[in-house]
Amino acid sequence: MNYRFDYDERLGIRLPYLEVEWEELSDQERHDMIMEWEKIKARIPDRIMEIEREINNRQLQASQAEDWDKICKLYEEIYTYASVINDLHIWMRVNQDFDAEPGISEEHENREK
Question: Which superkingdom, per the lineage (predicted)?
Answer without folding.
Answer: Bacteria
